[in-house]
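Hi all, a correction to my earlier message: I attached the wrong file for Oxidoreductase. Here's the right sequence:
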Amino acid sequence: MQTVVITGGTDGLGKGLALHYLRQGAHVIAVGSTAEKGQALLAEAKALPTGRADFVRSDLTSVAASQDLAERLAGDHPVVDKLILCAQRYRLFGDRVTTREGFEHSFALAYLSRFVLSHGLHDALRAARRPVIMNVGTPGVPLGRIHWDDLQLTRTYSGAKASLQSFRANDLLGVAFGVLHAGSGVSYIGYNPGVVSTGMPESLPQPLRAATKAFFTMFATSVPKAIAPMTALLDDPPAEPFAAYWQKRRLSLDGRAFDGQDALRLHDLTRELIPR
Ligand SMILES: NC(=O)c1ccc[n+]([C@@H]2O[C@H](COP(=O)([O-])OP(=O)(O)OC[C@H]3O[C@@H](n4cnc5c(N)ncnc54)[C@H](OP(=O)(O)O)[C@@H]3O)[C@@H](O)[C@H]2O)c1
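and the right structure:
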């Protein structure tokens, strides 16, 4: 039985992937911060004839919680076949928010949790037959940058700037992971699903929430359709340690977004930020 860990596995793309792999007979461990969503997933899983579902409640804005989760998962599951990173909550508007550990919210949730889990589960992943990590974000979108002199955006914060920085940081996380763990057999995929109709608009303020929902109804891909190319890649990952995709299209790794030196620089800075 495959073991598939999915952060953000209780809603949107993550939930779609959770149900897919349960139907394939996998042991799916879905992580989210809301108990109700976790219970709803478990109820749906119960109605399926195959698979085994577990829900782990964890607030991944906390580095300590992400580290505890990685340690607990690695302890309980010596072999993890797939790690899928979907946990996200956009804070595009409003004032800068810091987590209890003092990190800017988007940096902590969308980037640091993925950094901790990717590296923290590496040993359990490399024990699998075809291990893969899929970091779901926006590779290929030429927006945003790393604010090297102020990663926590203390001086010139905006929600959009913070979200975009976290996306670009995840591009570099994949590159660095591929370099640092080359030869371990783990494939790291940065994946852009395009516009998909998920629970994402729920975190937006009105009237943007209603407008985004209306836009999604007209233009967005459904979750079942969006996960088809994702599962194809997850089940047959590329041989290279890191690859990036926008739906089915493989992206060139030339250019600043995937710069190797930037990737290792951010890796080292991140290690310094994280307490243990
Ligand atoms: N949808 C799109 O059009 C689109 C486009 C490009 C990229 N993406 C990327 O695809 C990924 C999945 O997006 P989605 O649209 O499927 O999202 P979604 O429907 O909003 O689901 C987000 C998931 O993250 C979990 N989550 C949020 N905050 C959390 C926290 N503090 N700790 C733990 N879990 C947390 C949520 O569960 P709780 O609410 O219970 O915490 C939920 O399971 C994201 O990385 C997103 O950036 C999406």
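Sorry for the mix-up. The beta strands are 3-7, 27-32, 52-57, 82-85, 132-136, 187-192, 242-246, 249-250.
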